[in-house]
Each structure stands twice: as structure tokens, then as C-alpha cells.
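<instruction>
Derive C-alpha cells from the sequence
<data>
Labelled lines for chain and fold
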Amino acid sequence: MSTNLKLNVHSVKCIDETGGKWREKIGNDEIYMAAFTMTDNLELVRKNAFSVYGDFDDGDQFNFNPPKTLLNMNIASAENGSTYGAGIILAEKDNNRSWDSLWDFLYHYSSSNPKAKDLPVALRVGTQLLHKGTLALKKFDEFIGSEFSRAYEDDFFPPMQVYTTLSGKDHTWNGQFTSPVFSAECTAHDGKYRVYYSWELL
């Protein structure tokens, strides 16, 4: 009987380097990754930013061997049809100070916005709505285009929202405790990246 669900990343592929064709000729992308989810009590759980690869060019793919765990979620209360979700964030990094403010933004946005309750919900963890995370995702485009983001020169991509639905604590994927490998894509700053990930039950 499983009580934990892991989100693992297998590889990151550069479909198109950031910055347009002229910037691509003189440099490469230094890509960092982070991830977040919410507990049933709506507490932020995060994987702090780490370096994926410092020299991405068009077509490059970095493989994690073994796959790297991004998040570990408690599913002790999982029931049939429980859906678990997370946000995966990539950034072309120039200055790591902006990540602290990103986490602060993700955590505090909903409580500081008087219209928060009117925004639609996009993520779920178990039977609980990922309220704060969803609201942050809803407004993320404003964050990455803000004066703050430009000042720190980090090029954030919109979070990739990933999900899995379990049939309960005895769930398997065709008899396996590890799901097939899925992919998610993000596009911004004239660049495009694809992340390959899977779920694992423990």
C-alpha cells in the first residue's frame, strides 16, 4: 500500500534557445529548474532551484541518470479518483536572487489579492484545491514581465502544470509502481523547452 508519490524528472530538451536568432549566435542558455505543490492544508512545498545544464543550444538534451526527484507527496488519504498536481518551473538564469521573491510571490499572492476567490482553479492535490498555487499560476505572466524580473535578468518560463489521478493507495500503472514517462513544454523569451517526467509510488 503506497503512502508517498514522487515526481521525477528524466531529462530536459532545448527545442529552441531563448533570445531569438541573433542572441543564440553569441551565447547559450543556462537553465535552472524548480518545482512546487501544496499539501492538503494548502502549505507550499517546493524544490528549490538547481542547475540543469549551463550550455543549452538548439536540440540539446540533458539526461538525469538516475532520474532526479523533484517532489515527494504524502498520499495517505488518497481515495479513488484523487488527483495530484505540481508546477515545474524553468528559468534561464543570470542572477539567483530572484528565486526567493518568486517563492514569496507564489505563496502570498492569493491572500493579498482581494479578487483571488473569483479566479478559477487549475490544480488539485488529492481532494484539496491547490488554491494558492493556482492563483499564482494565473498571475505568473505578470510576474515574469514585471520590472522586478527584468531588473534581475532571469528569464522565467510559465510553470508547467502536471497531474496524475490515482485509483487509491493501491494504484499502479499496468502493474507497475512507476508511471510511463510523460512530457510537458514551456515557451517564452523566444525559447522553448520540453521536460520529461514520471510519477513513482512508494
